[in-house]
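Data card: per-record layout.
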Amino acid sequence: MAKNEKPHEQQKRRLRSQLWFDNPDNPGMTALYLERYLNYGLTREELSSGRPIIGIAQTGSDLSPCNRHHLELAERVRAGIRDAGGIALEFPVHPIQETGKRPTAALDRNLAYLGLVEVLYGYPLDGAVLMTGCDKTTPACLMAAATVNTPAIVLSGGPMLDHYLNGKRMGSGTLIWQARQDQAAGKIDYKEFMEIVAQSAPSIGHCNTMGTASTMNALAEALGMSLPGCAAIPAPYRERAQIAYLTGKRAVEIVREDLKPSDILTRAAFENAIVACSAIGGSTNAPIHINAIARHVGVELKIEDWEKLGHDVPLLVNMQPAGEYLGEEYFRAGGLPAVMHELLQAKRLHGDALTINGKTYAENVARAKSSDADVIRPYAKPLKPHAGFKVLHGNLFDSAIMKTSVISDEFRKRYLSNAKDPNAFEGRAIVFDGPEDYHHRIDDPALGIDEHSVLFMRGVGAIGYPGSAEVVNMQPPAALIKKGVTSLACIGDGRQSGTSGSPSILNASPEAAAGGGLALLKTGDRVRIDLNKGTADILISDAELTARRAALQKGGGYRYPPSQTPWQEIQRAMVDQLADGMVLQPAVKYQRVAQKFVPRDNH
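The structure for this 603-residue chain is written out next.
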């Protein structure tokens, strides 16, 4: 129930859908709207009775295998909506599948967002269940809900079951990176590679690691937009269908209470999400998407906040790629509520933040203790004391992030353990212009790549790729892998998969295509990364930098491939950088539109 609202006042509020289906002031239009929605069996009584009409934003399809089980879960959502006195209207959301869409699924996040805004605003819906799962569906749905600001609740799809290879836990995505490395080292051939990966997705659901899908659905819950415990339930478990039913029921209740995204998505909620991301070992894609949601709801959030609020948060979840376990064990240990309980006890959360079930975070997680202290660690006994992102600045870029929870002992020893220069390194830059260039030249002996080289990937940002690709986590040349060097320092203006354990420096903003410092870098330049100071620089003079920039501008700027579709051209013309959420710049001024406007009639 909305704050300070008496029970009888809920019944007085006319619902948004009644402008379509029960408007005596405009009988001609009411007749037009009502007539066609009866043609498949709905009754006039249902539509005109003042019962809340709840949209089910369906992201499942054959093109989106990670979300496909939502086609079945929607039936349980419908049952919950019906039992709570509502009417369900299901509709498709533009498909987004991280592993299926070329050139990148990130290109479609803003496209799905735009489509969903128009549906939530322009159709007779009082509220919505946002069915999320694979990576970009979660931010796309939350961005749209934030823009329109009608009552909405998130139902995630859950991770697939755990997978084992030769008796060892192997997470989806993470296994692929390992198999790629094994093929390069000559341990397996192409046929064996394909056989391994063909077995690595053992059930319905999204990645069973703490990749971007698990991260973003956990952060939807951390923001307060999902029912407690929703994010971690594995997709095939009965609890997933049960919470789908409860989500449907709650969707009707939040309409009656007029509980909107803007009531929940406050600055405190976003700070809770940042802290939670560090504690779970969350994906480097999270800052992009969380910053985008914040911008669409009008909350001030900067990339620097991720280090300020989250860097010193300990790693509590022992889950791949930063840890050992997978999704089923994480769920059985207590999932996100158990993590948030530890953070609340350590006074790292805003316990008074409101959540979608009408209770505060403190109320929700007060008793949610971990049942397995090896999977979800006590705050005082973490896997790592500092697990958040470092935000770096310098003449290479204005900002980029590095995930510290996945810095391996081998990487730390080789790059960050100089007693005379701790947590810093210098190296010779090897520059690639896009993944095609990387794959073509990485094994070229003429590049002189050694175990101290620094690999750069540019031209793969929001504008340059377009859409920003997950290609920065480059593996070393096969010759080095065969010698036991399994990772080099990687830096780029694109992204990497959240399932990757590479401690790359990512999301560089501005990107090369927008005139960032990476566009001025040349193979053979010396670069310096200093984690203590938070700096990343080409070690050349200011005069040389100025001369290179002038030459670049004279030559027409950094060159990148032409747009291949209308949407690519449209997005490139108005997209912001990764540090600022990769949002469409003209879109962020549209906030709380359902409270500001009433859509005009269509006839």
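Known properties of this structure: The two ends are 36 Å apart (CA to CA). The longest helix spans residues 238-257.

See the next section for split statistics.
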